[in-house]
Design goal:
It is a single chain. This protein is α+β, with helices and mostly antiparallel strands. It has one domain (24-209). 20% of the residues lie in helices and 37% in strands. It is built from four helices and ten strands. The chain has helices at residues 3-23, 35-39, 183-197, 206-209, and strands spanning 28-29, 46-55, 58-68, 75-86, 89-101, 114-119, 128-135, 143-151, 154-162, 173-174. It has a five-stranded antiparallel β-sheet, with no helix packed on it. It has a five-stranded antiparallel β-sheet with strand order 6-7-8-9-10, covered by helices on one side. The longest helix has 21 residues, at 3-23. It is globular and about 50 Å long. It starts with a helix and ends in a 13-residue tail after the last helix.
């Protein structure tokens, strides 16, 4: 191959690499009070987390919200949703719901911690959404952990028991869709699951600690 052609190919490779970097998702937290105005649509419940990123498919916003669960349930409904900008407006891509039962149902503590991660784990220019959270178990029972992975419009999940102390045992079960994910996406999901499932006093994973804002608790997105 002649040197001029080699230089052309090298320049093209650099351009492709630069374009890939330009479309990589870098998630940023949004001020919670600005979400309604940004999306220009009513949002159900109280927004607890809001993240924005831009990838090769456009601009996206991912929300976590909470509201009182509908009757006959007693507790809190937690929701996760993703929006994509379409022209001058926004459309909702998906919505996932779960419930936190209050003390009257026998749960040990009607709270949860959510980790939201937006990341192009497989390097294809499109951001995956990972949502990890735990639901308190009844007295004497383990907490329930859930990890949702949204990849190219499809949802897969890991579910299992969460260890409360170093002496407890946890478990995990991947659904059928998880096995079809690219290995890089599976690896990222399993790292998040390990973060979620370890007892709090053993949870020292720097992967997410490094990206947590000082007051964000267990939030993480990058």
């Amino acid at each position: 191959m002649s040197r001029p052609w080699a230089r052309v190919l090298a320049s093209a490779s650099l351009l492709i690499a630069w374009m890939g970097q330009a479309t990589a998702c870098t998630a940023v937290p949004l001020p919670l009070a600005s979400v309604n105005d940004r999306l220009n649509m009513p949002i159900e419940g109280e927004v607890s987390q809001a993240w924005a990123c831009k990838d090769s498919a456009g601009e996206h916003v991912v929300l976590a919200t909470r509201q009182t669960a509908p009757e006959p349930l007693h507790g809190t409904q937690i929701q996760f949703s993703k929006f994509t900008k379409s022209g001058a407006s926004w459309k909702r891509d998906w919505l996932a719901r779960d419930f936190l039962m209050d003390g009257g149902s026998g749960s040990s503590n009607a709270t949860s911690s959510e980790i939201i991660l937006l990341k192009d784990a497989d390097g294809d220019g499109l951001a995956e959404v990972f949502i990890a959270y735990s639901l308190p178990g009844r007295a004497g029972e383990p907490d329930t952990g859930k990890l949702l992975i949204f990849y190219k419009g499809h949802k897969s999940a890991i579910r299992g028991a969460i260890a409360r102390t170093a002496a407890d045992f946890g478990s995990r079960k991947m659904d059928v869709g998880f096995q079809a994910l690219p290995s890089a996406v599976q690896s990222q999901a399993l790292q998040l699951w390990d973060r979620l499932s370890l007892p709090a006093n053993l949870n020292k994973d720097p992967l997410l600690q490094a990206s947590d804002p000082p007051s964000a608790g267990r939030r993480a997105s990058r």
